[in-house]
Specification:
There is one protein chain. The protein is 36% helix and 20% strand. The protein contains 14 helices and 21 strands. The protein has a 7-stranded mixed sheet, sandwiched between helices. A 5-stranded mixed sheet has the order 19-6-5-20-21, with no helix packed on it. Helix 1 packs across helix 7. The relative contact order is 0.13.
Length: 527
Amino acid sequence: MITGKNHIGNQLVAKANTTFKTFNPLLNKQNNWEMLQATPSQVNQAAALAAQAFKTYSKISGHKKATFLRAIATQIEALGNLLLTTYTAESGLPNARAIGERGRTLAQLHAFANHIEEGNWVEASIDTAQPERQPIPKVDLRKINQPLGPVAVFGASNFPLAFSTAGGDTASALAAGCPVIVKSHPMHAGTGYLVASAIIKAAQETGMPNGVFSNLNSNSTQVGQLLVTNPNIKAVGFTGSIAGGRALYNLAAKRQEPIPVFAEMGSINPIILLPEALQNSASHIAKTYAQSITLGTGQFCTNPGLILAVKSKHLNSFTQVLAQEIVKVEPSVMLHPNIVGAYEKNKANALSQKGVEVLADYKNKVKPNYARQLVTTVNGDTFLNNTTLHHEVFGPYSIVVQCDNQEQLETIISKLEGQLTGTIMSHNLEIEHYPNIVNALQDRVGRIIFNGVPTGVEVCPSMLHGGPYPASTDSRFTAVGIDSIKRWVRPISYQNWPNNLLPDELKNENPLNILRKINGKITSEKI
């Protein structure tokens, strides 16, 4: 049952000045459950509880934290069909997507549990003393990663499970030893409520400190602003728009104690079509990308929103087939009327730009909250000189840029804003003849793809989901995979510290039997 109350640690709080309801975009009506908006005092209470919990939780062993994460997965799975039906009612996404995303969420929790149980993630480094060294004796130094403190996590609109309440940000922060306060996304607050209940239940049954997790409801910006500026919050995780991420980043920077904001924001994910690829596979590539552009109604951060190629008759063939194929795809519902409205506004803005031509526009009548796919085209000079065309149009939209020559193509790539992904479509190894294109693209993206599509993010240690600004606020980190834990820790060195007072990971006897760097050598040996 969804009561709509706020989870302040282990307590469900009913007090609220305002309420709101989520919306079913498929049925085009509000859902029945009512959510209670968190008050400023509740934000402060949750942050104070998290700070208190941090004192204990930051010292809990990897094994105990792993038990907690696995318990969260068990409790989420135990929600059964209620979670799935709530998910679909608040997002319009199909049941199969709900099942798949739930599976990804559970897998992430188990992956982090395994990761911290293994223990090597702390990156223990030991340089033993050399008291006889001349002319200056060498001190004993030992370094380890330790958690930053309470983390504020903002749920994402387009992934109600995998990037929201118990998603990658929450799982990685809890794994690192940081309590989490989630600012639940208002579009799927009911889903968030259910997941939050599962996390709290798991925390209680595994003996975690009260305040290790809280979940706050809000359909305005106030709660988010209060969280980011609260002195007990030590880091922020965000997935969403450039405007939203940058606003939080600026707030965090203005604090008396600035804190890191790890925001994954906008991306148009450029696709480079090399000449031989077009000559040999124009029709196949066009059909592939018609499907990728419309996948999930274009509501993925890795949607291919920009296609670049040098003008040729084969590019003409590609655009013709793309135009034919993309309108064959049946439109689907978007996540919320607000997202539909933003999509239509951004499409209209793109179409109003000088030199932009329509390649394909779905003209048939659609149901409320459904998106009509659109593909436009423009020449290279116009695209270079109008950065408005570089902006993300969140939805089933893409623009084909027809470049005059390879040099202009390279220039356009080098002047792009930072992107999550970049793809090169090549016939066999023709890519070997375009090192400058490859180098330019590498400088602009977090993940570079050969002969594929950017939609689809594999959750594994080698995945990098991030990129140069504005794809993310810090290109050194990923928001997906076990390495995302590194966002929530900082290194600390212990100098000449008594062995019995050191963290277990740094003690001479290596009681956890983890891999450590000892005097430059990776080993699990004792000292």
